[in-house]
Design goal:
By secondary structure, this protein is an all-beta fold. The protein has strands at residues 4-7, 10-13, 18-24, 34-39, 46-51, 58-60, 68-73, 78-83, 92-99, 108-109, 115-120. The strands form two sheets. Strands 2, 4, 5, 6, 9, 10 and 11 form a seven-stranded mixed β-sheet that branches. A four-stranded antiparallel β-sheet has the order 1-3-8-7, with no helix packed on it.
Length: 121
């Protein structure tokens, strides 16, 4: 199994930036595509971004395109989410997970515990 731990969340003003990190416990991290999701209070979890095993291909939901960047460092077993131009509607608990299906936005497993991102207006 892959154990994941998110960090880097916090409170920022609208227009600010944060970088989230997701650290994996195993070297086999590099065999998985990885995704970021978020869940706001009272709402269902939504897909945010995905990156393939090598880091060469990324995919984003429309609402974050041009603002968020997903990346990974397989040598450090870590995936990142750089979030710029943050908006209040980005407020949510952010989770990382390993993709277990062929295509971005499909099935994911080995969810982390989440990190809170709060964006004030």
């Amino acid at each position: 199994q892959v154990q994941l731990a998110e960090s880097g969340g916090g409170l920022v003003q609208a227009g600010g930036s944060l970088r989230l990190s997701c650290a994996a416990s195993r070297r086999t991290f590099s065999s998985y595509a990885m995704g970021w999701f978020r869940q706001a209070p009272g709402k269902e979890r939504e897909f945010v971004a995905d990156i393939d095993r090598s880091g060469g291909t990324t995919y984003y939901t429309d609402s974050v395109k041009g603002r968020f960047t997903i990346s990974r460092d397989n040598a450090e077993n870590t995936v990142y989410l750089q979030m710029n131009s943050l908006k209040p509607e980005d407020t949510a608990v952010y989770y990382c997970a390993a993709r277990i299906s062929r295509y971005p936005g499909g099935s994911y497993a080995y969810w982390g515990q989440g990190t809170q991102v709060t964006v004030s207006s």
